[in-house]
Amino acid sequence: MKVKHPTIEERFIPLTAWSDSSANALTKCVVSFINMSGGFAERINTMGVYQQAKQVKDVDGKMRTIGKGKYIPGGSTKGSADISATIKGRAVKIEVKYGKDRMSESQKEYQENTERAGGIYYIARDFDSFIEWYDKLISEL
Fold this sequence. Notes:
Layout: H1 23-36, E1 40-43, E2 49-51, E3 54-57, E4 63-66, E5 70-72, E6 83-87, E7 90-96, H2 105-116, E8 120-124, H3 127-140
Parallel strand pairs: 7-8
Antiparallel strand pairs: 1-6, 2-5, 3-4, 6-7
């Protein structure tokens, strides 16, 4: 905010509210923390796209639907982690699991492939545990 609004006094810049009360909020916290700590992190969107059925106007001027909509899978690797990061020159993949959410078989395979290639993989379930892991990782690198 200081860079974007240099004329505003620092005491008037609002603090950002942080929370790990959902998967999206935890993902935002982790990405922001890594970026503010000198690393680089980005959220990876692995969702596909729903393509609506074709809409046409008939001779009476009414809109009609032809066929059905369909789901088009995304182009990312199946099982990709939610966050891709570089920390002290190392490739780090972070999967966010919130509540009762569990890893799928394709996610487990992605983890194995990442670690086999020398990358670091972590499953983030809450922000406090992530910070403990991050501090340990930084001291080892």
